[in-house]
Amino acid sequence: MSALTQTARPSLLRRWGGLALWLLLLLLLAIYPYTGVTGSTLFTATQVFVLVTLASNWNLIGGMTGYVDFGHAVFFGLGAYSMGILVTRVPLAFSPELSFWQALPLAGLVAALFALIIGLPTLRLKGPYFSIAMLGTFVAMREIIRILRPITGGGTGLDLPPVLNRVNEYYFMLGLMGLVVALIWWIRRSEFGYTLIAIREDEIGAEMRGINTTVHKIIAFMIAAFFTGIVGAFWAWQNTYIDPDVVFIEQRTVEMVMMSMLGGLGTVWGPPLGAVVIYFLQDVVWGNLLNFHLMALGILLILLVLFLPEGILGSLGDPSSTSLGRLLRRAGRGRE
Amino acid sequence: MNSQQPLLEGRDVYKFFGGLAAVNGVDFAVYPGEIVGLIGPNGSGKTTLFDCLTRLQSIDRGQIFFKGQEITHARPYQVARMGLARTFQVIRVYRKMTVLENMLISRQWRGEGLLDMLRPSHPDTERRARELIRFLQIEHLTDELAGHLSGGQRRLLEIGMALMPDPDILLLDEATSGINPTLIEIIKDRIRTLNREQGKTFLLIEHNINFIADLCSRVYVLNFGEKLAEGAPEEIMENEAVIEAYFGA
Asked: Is residue B68 part of a domain?
């Protein structure tokens, strides 16, 4: 039973327990910097928060709505470059030298606006065609940024004002991550969330039953783009330097997809779980297989698709219909 | 001749797939409160006509009217919101949602904004969903995932989903296909009740001639995309052209 079924009430714990645990975790994480940890540890934690936020955003369009976006990092890049252009002291055709807080919402809006413009044609495409169209958009945007040198600094990149404050960065991303995951939790339980799932399950059936699928898809796309753009903007600020080849990297989208898949597509807590697991797996792989880490990640992705397509949390939901569940049942029958 | 305005009307409807005329100049009308049958051999264009009426397919020529308004170029969701609901030849339910959730998501849409939709479902919506679930005798399956239901149970759910927005007309595409006789009688009884007590209008595609004969006041027969015959069930069953179309010369 879900919050959609308001009058058939499950227990209070079941309805609000997940959010309560999330808020408790946020509280503990808020106290964490006061436990004597180093700046380096805070930086690591901040990177995990970035991954959780990116995965949760991608999950809204890729997991819940079923539109697998292979170019979602374009919104990260647009956010990063919006922040860069708006705050840089480098003389460009347009450099208003705004503050971080002035530039931040604008960066998100730029990403959301681009999602609206590109979403109108691309969200008409189905399945792999949408995925490829977004990948193409990502690649094209990288080159456009490179070409528009008077505005973006081109291939030589842009320097942002150097501000090093690990604690502030930690709390900013903690707050953003907390907000985004809580928003996804709420959406998942609302009529809007169930509409997105209906679109994922059967878009034609949804349209035939009165759902304006175009509007719903566009809204989900814009929400996901907005917060991804915000993360990109933060990343640019933290990094203090951006160029097209540093910002627009395909691996960023691959990571979002893998984190969501590993944790559980369409679930609320799956992508955050997947993000944490992926981060520490990458750390282990980097530390022990430096020359082969991309290959190792590729193998992991293949194994994931083959044996755990529903992800960790997705597999726990309905063992009779998941690959892992079926595998374990077969193994159990073999031992009898 | 019925002096009322038709509830659903198609005028000179054509639908081509390449060189093939799937619907070839069909005129028809369904009046309020009727139960009308649409029969014909396999490949005669029945489902294609349904798809055109509900705007799942666009037509190549002709016009379609619903409640007096032309819907020839409307989007499917717009037609659904006007009060036209359908089921499908191949059952379409949301398999990873429960029966109740399937019903709730099929509710009547009133053009709410995003803020309205970020709330859980209204209590009246859930009340109606539960009433319909009871009406269709699938109450024991309320919390089951739709993907776990049998074919017949999914048929009943799909009918429930079509009823949920309180439509003016229901287009049922082979609602008795592949289900047992007991369930067929339940469906027949529910259609009669809805028609008699709520004035619901039905257009039924069926291969089950007895089902059509028991329920329908009028029947259209299609063959090779064209209207072959129209009339009361007993007239249709004695029509030589119809007999030839089904059984050959």
From this structure: yes
Adjacent-strand bridge partners of B23: B15
For the record, the structure tokens of A17 come out as 């327990």
Q: Are residues A5 and B121, on separate chains, in Cβ contact within 8 Å?
A: yes
B131 touches chain A (CB under 8 A): no
**Cβ B101–A210 below 8 Å, yes or no?**
no
B10: its two tokens? 């198609």
Q: B56, A186: Cβ pair inside 8 Å?
A: no
Best probe of the B interface among A5, A116, A202, A318, by most B CBs < 10 A, is A5
A191 contacts in B (CB within 8 Å)? Answer: 105, 116-121
| 8 Å CB contact between B9 and B30 | yes
In a domain, B136, yes or no: no
Question: What's the number of domains chain B is made of?
Answer: 1
Among the ranges given (A124-128, B107-111, B212-216), the one the predictor scored with the smallest mean pLDDT: B107-111
SS3 A93: coil
Q: First-to-last CA distance in chain A?
A: 35
**How many angstroms separate the Cα of B163 from the Cα of each of B159, B202, B222?**
6, 11, 27
Rounded to 5 degrees, φ, ψ at B35 are -120, 110
Nearest CA in chain A to B161: A209
Give which of B79, B58, B61 is closest to B69, Cα–Cα: B79
Asked whether residue B222 is domain-assigned, the answer is: yes
CATH number, domain containing residue B43? 3.40.50.300
DSSP per residue over B176-236, as a string?
A: TTT--HHHHHHHHHHHHHHHHHH--EEEEE-S-HHHHHHH-SEEEEEETTEEEEEE-HHHH
* Mutation target vs A (from B121, B130, B139, B157; most A CBs, 10 A cutoff): B121
Q: Give domain limits for chain A.
A: 41-249
- Which tokens go with B241? 């052209």
> Which of these, B92, B101, B170, B219, lies nearest to A191 by C-alpha position?
B101
A210/B165 Cβ within 8 A: yes
Query: How does pLDDT run across A256-291, given as a tens digit for each residue?
Result: 998 998 999 889 999 999 999 989 887 777 677 777
Q: B85, A204: Cβ pair inside 8 Å?
A: no
For chain A, give the percent of residues with pLDDT over 90. Answer: 65
Question: Does B149 map to a domain?
Answer: no
Q: Taking the model in full, what pTM does it have?
A: 0.89
